[in-house]
């Protein structure tokens, strides 16, 4: 039973284990309030880089412009950095992935996308495809 609480590969039980820190302290008390872990679809943009140094460079631009001041990164500005840095084909569209359902994206990408508060930008993280930064733009069921 301990596997699910740690955010293992169990499908459907991830929401129950995410309140203890899976949302990196951004959980605001109730799942109903922010929709974290309960929504079916997420709208997101991302930046994908093969090398950690390059994703850190992109993240530094986001920090210098907005994040270090406590500001949210405007989607249009995130898009400019995605065009400049992202190695994903979506980079040409400003990193726009549109709406996607739970289960479509692989492991860590799905975890971060569904646990990032709308309007917030994730810190860089690694997946099987490389290093990502996600900007969550919306959620719906």
Give a structural overview:
- The chain is an alpha+beta fold.
- Helix content is 33%, strand content 21%.
- The protein has six helices and four strands.
- The chain has a four-stranded antiparallel beta sheet, with helices on both faces.
- A hairpin with a 2-residue loop joins strand 3 (125-127) and strand 4 (130-140).
- Helix 4 (52-65) runs antiparallel to helix 5.
- The two termini are 28 Å apart.
Q: Which range best describes the helical content: under 10%, 10-25%, 25-40%, 40-55%, 55-70% or over 70%?
A: 25-40%
**How is the main sheet built?**
4 strands, antiparallel
| Unreliable segments of 5+ consecutive residues | 1-33
Query: N-to-C SSE series?
Result: HHHEHHEHEE
The backbone outline, from C-alpha atoms, is globular
Strand content: 15-25%
């Amino acid at each position: 039973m301990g596997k699910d609480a740690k955010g293992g590969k169990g499908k459907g039980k991830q929401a129950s284990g995410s309140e203890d820190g899976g949302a990196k302290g951004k959980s605001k008390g109730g799942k109903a309030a922010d929709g974290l872990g309960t929504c079916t679809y997420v709208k997101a943009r991302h930046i994908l880089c093969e090398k950690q140094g390059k994703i850190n460079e992109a993240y530094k631009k986001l920090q210098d412009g907005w994040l270090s001041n406590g500001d949210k990164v405007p989607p249009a500005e995130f898009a400019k950095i995605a065009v400049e840095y992202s190695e994903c084909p979506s980079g040409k569209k400003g990193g726009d992935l549109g709406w996607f359902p739970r289960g479509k994206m692989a492991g860590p990408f799905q975890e971060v996308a569904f646990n990032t508060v709308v309007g917030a930008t994730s810190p860089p993280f690694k997946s099987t495809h490389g290093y990502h930064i996600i900007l969550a733009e919306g959620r719906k069921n």
